[in-house]
Each structure stands twice: as C-alpha cells, then as structure tokens.
Amino acid sequence: MDRLDALKVFCAVVDAGGFSRAAARLGISTSSVTHQVGLLEAHFGVRLLARTTRSMSLTEEGRRCLEQARRLLDEMDALESSLSDALSAPRGSLRVDMPAIVAREYVAPALPRFLAAHPELSVRLSANDRLIDMVDEGVDVMLRIGELADSSLVGRGIFRNRYICCAAPDFIARHGRPQHPDELDRLPCLNFVYPRARQIRPWAFQQDGQPFTSTPRGAVAMDHVESLIEMAVRGGGIVQHLTLSLAAPLRSGALVPLLEPWQADGPDLAVLYPQRHQRAARIKVFVDFVEALFRDAAASSRPSA
Fold this sequence. Notes:
This protein has three domains: 3-85, Winged helix-like DNA-binding domain superfamily/Winged helix DNA-binding domain (Arc Repressor Mutant, subunit A, Orthogonal Bundle); 92-160 and 268-301, D-Maltodextrin-Binding Protein, domain 2 (3-Layer(aba) Sandwich), CATH 3.40.190; 162-265, D-Maltodextrin-Binding Protein, domain 2. The protein is 43% helix and 23% strand. The protein has helices at residues 3-16, 19-26, 30-44, 60-85, 100-117, 134-137, 169-175, 225-233, 243-252, 281-301, and strands spanning 49-51, 56-58, 92-98, 121-127, 141-145, 153-159, 162-167, 189-192, 203-207, 210-214, 220-222, 238-242, 256-258, 264-265, 269-274. The strands form four sheets. Strands 7, 8, 11, 12, 13 and 14 form a six-stranded mixed beta sheet that branches. A hairpin with a 2-residue loop joins strand 9 and strand 10. The radius of gyration is 25 Å and the shape is elongated. The protein starts with a helix and ends with a helix.
C-alpha cells in the first residue's frame, strides 16, 4: 500500500462526502476507493469512518487523521511545486469558474495567448454567476465580483470596479444630460433586478466621499445585465452598472458616461483559489495571467490625461 496515495483517497472521500463521489472525482472505481480506505484503517488499526448504508461520518481518530493528512499532503504539494517549477513547464488540466461577462469580454479572448505560452496546460472554463463550492465542484481557480467569506481560500483583488451611469449618444441628444441623480426620475432608466431576490438594485452614488443610493422609477427592469446594456446601446434609456460590464460599449462610444462627479466605488473583481494549491505551478501561471490581463484592462479604462 502506498500510504500517501491512501491518504489522498481518504481526504477525497471526506471532501466529496462519499465513496462513489470520491471515485468519480478521482477517476477510479468505487471498489478501489473502498479498498484504499480499508487498507489505511488496517494499517493504523483504527476505524476512520463510521459507515452505514445511508450515512458516513468521521470517527474521532478519523478527524485527527484528516487534519494531519491534509497538512502532510499540502506540504508534499508545496515541495513538488517548488522543485518542479525550476525544472519543467506547468502541465495538466486547470478547472476555472467565473462570471459570464468576465469570461466573454476578457478571459476567453485572451486564452489562446495563455495556452500558446503554456502548451502542456489545458483549461476547462465554466461561465456562470452562481456561488459554488470550489472543493465540491473540483474548481482550481475562481473569479468573483464582491466579498467572499470563505477563509479557506486565498483571494487577491485584480480589478477595481466603479458604478457608472451611461446612455447612448442619440438618447442624450433627445433627452439631455442629467446634472444630479435626483433628475433620473424624469428620464427613462433601466433598472437591474436581482435574479434570486427579485428586487430592484438601488443605484449607487457618492457625494463628497459619502456613498448613498437612489432608485429611479425606471422605464424597464430586468434580471439580465447584458440585455439591459444592449437596450441602453439602442437608445432605450440610462443604465447604471459596473466598469467591467460597461467597458466595451464605453470604449467604442456606443455609450457615454453620465453623472461622472457622482460615481461610486463598486465591488472588486477577485481571483480565488484553495490555500493548499497556492504554490502549484499551473495555478500560479493562471493567476499571473489574469492579474496582468485585468491590470491592462484597468489601464485602458482610465480616462486619458
């Protein structure tokens, strides 16, 4: 029995919440997983998992073993990464998850360049806006907008967002430019609806460094950001959203910023990954890639002097 492999299987069973789910994640048979855990229990002479036909839980000895095993495996991962980084290129598969707008507008167009630089890496990308459990879904790196409370993840802010009000040039020609957020109630505004709560998101502003919110009566409300922005591009009204979502139409001139003295800070974009993977070469090169990508995006979004 390879005790290190057996410990990896044991940790995978606990993380996945079952033998069959661990087997699917590891790409081996359920019987092999069961056998490995059984060998580990026989080696230590203790029961690590209390199992019935319907449930599984850690014994006290199992909890102690899990804590030590994770520490040992993390140290082994760090050792392997530190030794292999100097000798070989990053290789293997990388599973990443991010909001759809981030994938479409920023990461996907730049991925060919990333893969050309790292030909031994393959990327599986999921584009969605729901919160996920990285361990449960086998995700290596995640990009998310806003605060996440999971302390088991390493997080770095890579792009500072602002809330920007904007409208199409022909809309401004017809309706004029509002000079104060209070004037929005007399203009067609496009409100965003939180998909789950089904509530309209208040518009964010700041005055003299103090944030405040206001919710225009609005002409339209919908729960799909890209459709809302497209309606604004077609002259349908004023929209407020984050820099990340509006960068392309603002850069092309399809939308023009409004109420600029009142712009407020928004939730930042962050890259996150499990602590135990922070030294892995494949994680490091992808994190470096997205940091550089959004550093360039931030520079291009700044107004020219």
